[in-house]
Amino acid sequence: MAGILDVPKPRINCSMLSQHISRPVCFVGRVEKVHPTGKTFTVCDGEGKTATVELNEPLEEELSGVVEVIGMVSNKGAIMATTYNMLREDKGIPFDLELYNEALKVIHDFPQHYPFEVAASG
User: What is the pLDDT of residue 117?
Assistant: First the structure.
């Protein structure tokens, strides 16, 4: 069975979480709050809605700014993170989450042009 990092993952926002229960996803949001244990944090998407991200291991670094999380959506609607990447906002150019959210809407409104369920060839 292919690992979560090896399969296509739809990019989603908070309003799409319930449609992706038990499926791998990619979520981009701004870190709002990190739990003192370092095992969970909340992220805000481009619509201003909040999602919870749960980690297997506590964070070993300070987490802030915009992050891309890859993981599975739990039955509770939380994202069980496999991995995450902080998106650096270098050169004073902030990541525009609202514009990113608009791009997500286009991708999901026109799935024939942006396929995620790619058949494995082999």
Answer: 58
pTM (two decimals) = 0.88
- Give pLDDT, residue 42: 98
Between 2 and 121, the higher pLDDT residue? 2
Q: What is the mean pLDDT of residues 26-50?
A: 96
Considering only CA atoms, which of 39, 47, 90, 97 is closest in space to residue 67?
Answer: 97
Three-state helix/strand/coil letters over 39-92? CEEEEECCCCCEEEEECCCCCCCCCCCEEEEEEEECCCCCEEEEEEEEECCHHH
For residue 85, the cross-strand partners are 68
Q: Is 122 helix (H, G, I), strand (E, B) or coil?
A: coil
Contact 65, 40 (CB under 8 A): no
**Tokens representing residue 63 in the block:** 């987490």
Q: Which residues pair with 28 in a beta bridge?
A: 68
- Kind and range of the H or E run holding 104: helix 97-109
